[in-house]
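Q: Okay, next protein. This is DUF1467 family protein from Erythrobacter insulae. I've checked the sequence twice, so it should be correct. Can you predict the 3D structure?
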Amino acid sequence: MAWTSILAIYFLVWVMTAFIMLPFGVRTAEESGEDVVPGQAESAPANFQPRKLIMRATIIAIVLTTLYVLNFEYGWIGIEVFDILPKPPTLESP
């Protein structure tokens, strides 16, 4: 696999991981006991920490991309693993 393909896969996995992780660990102003600023949405995060999110997404994306590339190279899990339907009957000519 070319290094550019690995980089593209890493980028896609990183973005997907970052978006999946966004709601975890975020507390609203009400949950953290802070005052709500006038005009602020009640669901707005009070303690958003982008550095922590970036670090977690980076670590998880590295692990997932490494597993994907290793599976691509060594063929641990192939399409035949997901072939759960029975084979269709063969038609014999009379």
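A: Here is a summary of the prediction. The CA atoms of residues 53 and 69 lie 24 Å apart. The mean pLDDT is 91.
Q: Noted. On to the next one.
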